[in-house]
Amino acid sequence: MTARALTRMYDEALRPTGLKVTQLSLLAAIDRGLTGSISALADMLALERTTLTRNLRLLGDAGLIAPRAGGGRAVAHELTDAGRAALARATPLWRKAQDAIETGMGSGAWLEARDSLRALRRVARAQSTPQEASREAPRETSLEMRNVVAERSARTTARR
Fold first, then answer.
1. Percent helix / strand / coil, the chain, rounded to 5
2. Which residues form the HTH marR-type domain (predicted)?
3. What is d(CA 91, CA 145) in angstroms, rounded to the nearest whole number?
4. Which residues fall within 8 angstroms of residue 18, CB to CB, at 6 or more apart?
């Protein structure tokens, strides 16, 4: 129930952009160049491939991402100009929602909750498959988008 409540809160905050928090996570991950394939992106974001493929199709149909050339058979994506603009519009809205959570919980409680969620995710992945247990790549969830968005905001501010 907590995950659904948070997802609804973020989705509501992002409503003016037309993006869902899962789509924002995808745009941010693609923008950072964190993955070279759909499988790697699905693993990193802990999404089922079908869910990821559906969201990638929606972002592509909206003109926010495009396939990136190269890399053989693996399909990777990159943001279009419209995708970068959408990410830039969504970032402050996400940040405001995230700040509300952190302020509402208090800094210490927020950090403890974040760390506990990371530990829970590691345990769940370890129980899922041996391959997932051995992965060391960083994982971003909607609650951990903080670093992704902060880096994006810093780059955007530096460009101005």
1. 75, 5, 20
2. 1-125
3. 10
4. 62, 86
CA distance 86 to 130: 37
Which residue is listed with tokens 């089922």? 48
Q: In the chain, what is the greatest distance between 2 CA atoms, to the nearest angstrom?
A: 47
- Residue 67, beta-bridge partner list: 77
User: How large a percentage of the chain has pLDDT more than 70?
Assistant: 74
Residue 140: exposure state from Cβ atoms within 10 A (0-12, 13-18, ≥19): buried
Q: DSSP state, 89?
A: H
Crossing angle of the two packed helices 21-31 and 2-14, in degrees rounded to 10: 70
What is the C-alpha to C-alpha distance for residues 140 and 13, in angstroms, rounded to an integer?
19
Q: How far apart are the first and last CA of the chain?
A: 40
Instruction: Pick the more confident residue, 12 or 118.
Output: 12
Confidence of residue 72 (pLDDT cuts 50, 70, 90): low
The angle at the Cα of 16, spanning 100 to 13, to the nearest 5 degrees, equals 20
